[in-house]
Amino acid sequence: MVVCLALLTGACAGPQSALDPAGEGAERIARLFWWMAAWAALIWVALVGLTVYLTRLRPGEHEDQAARWLIIGGGVVFPTVVLTALLGYGLGLLDDLLEPPTTPRLRVEIVGEEWWWRVRYLPEDGEPVVAANEVRLPVGEPVTFEVTAHGVIHSFWIPSLGGKIDMIPGRRNVLHLTPTRTGTFRGTCSEYCGMGHALMSFAAVVMPADEFDAWLVDERAEAAETSAEPARLGAELFLANGCGACHTVRGTSANGEIGPDLTHVGSRSTIGAGLLPMDREAFRRWIARPQEVKPGVLMPAYEALPDEDLDALAAYLASLR
Ligand code: CUA
């Protein structure tokens, strides 16, 4: 029993649990879940009790009248009332979830790619800020996500913060989330989209509002130049090997838009959309053999490069903070 409970509740906490809410939407959804779970448990106990009563305590024949009441009451009236009440409660919650906030301070556009996340912050005052594979949000403020996709359908979901929404090519869907506490949570793709489906996640970092504002200013800035070796050599190699055809590093001539923007890639918490830790070794592995980490990824392998070049490229990317 204890083991069963531990297994059951083991999924209730953590950075990707809808039952450990850190957002207004997730709180409502969790409340609905617990209401339904409580009712299901109550009905289960009543049914087991009735079965024990009828088979052990009072076996044998029962009056027709009592049987009829049991079937009409327990089989028709009770489920009709309970299910109607739960449906009404659920539909009421749905309305609340879809209600746009009166004062959205921040809009964030997310594009589902194969298999990563293109992120554009759209602050009211100023130019969009482009990032990838990590979403940062101010705590306590409503944020409007505008989601779409390239090529295939994905689904955008940060379970700790709220509900999920489909990302459909050619369509712009809207999701409102209001984080209620700071922390790093895990977002994920929740619709099967192809080979990389299970390999595209992202960190959702909820920060105090003033820290977020400062971070957005940094994120908007061009990439810092480095004179330290081997990162400086890496910057040259990055351009010489044509990385800039797919990736943008603002402040350099790399302005490709096929792959993730790398201007501040070193400040993110993961490499490869949630797959590898943010360190030089992981960068080396990703550049040399990305297919080994994420089968189906569009990034070509650079394992033919000499070791020193891979080291320099890894040092350069890690320095882009
Ligand atoms: Cu993207 Cu599943």
Q: Order of SSEs, N→C? A: HHHEEEEEEEEEEHHEEHHH
Q: Percent range for helical residues?
A: 25-40%
Structure ligands: dinuclear copper ion
Task: Indicate the low-confidence ranges by residue numbers.
Answer: none
Query: Biggest β-sheet: count, sense, barrel?
Result: 5 strands, mixed
Strand order of the largest sheet: 3-2-1-5-8
User: Number of DSSP helices?
Assistant: 8
Instruction: Name the beta content range.
Output: 15-25%
- Rounded average pLDDT: 91
Query: What is the molecular shape?
Result: elongated
Based on DSSP secondary structure assignment, what is the total number of beta strands?
12
Summarize the structure in short.
With 321 residues, the chain is of the alpha+beta class.
Provide a descriptive summary of the structure in words.
The chain is of the alpha+beta class. Helices cover 39% and strands 19% of the residues. The chain contains eight helices and twelve strands. It has a five-stranded mixed sheet with strand order 3-2-1-5-8, with helices on one face. Strand 1 and strand 2 (117-123) form a beta hairpin. The radius of gyration is 26 Å and the shape is elongated. The mean pLDDT is 91.
Topology:
Elements: H1 2-9, H2 24-57, H3 64-98, E1 106-112, E2 117-123, E3 129-132, E4 134-138, E5 143-149, E6 154-157, E7 164-167, E8 173-177, E9 183-189, E10 201-207, H4 209-220, H5 231-240, E11 270-271, E12 276-277, H6 280-288, H7 290-293, H8 307-319
Parallel strand pairs: 1-5, 4-10
Antiparallel strand pairs: 1-2, 2-3, 5-8, 6-7, 6-9, 9-10, 11-12
Helix pairs in contact: 2-3, 5-8, 6-8
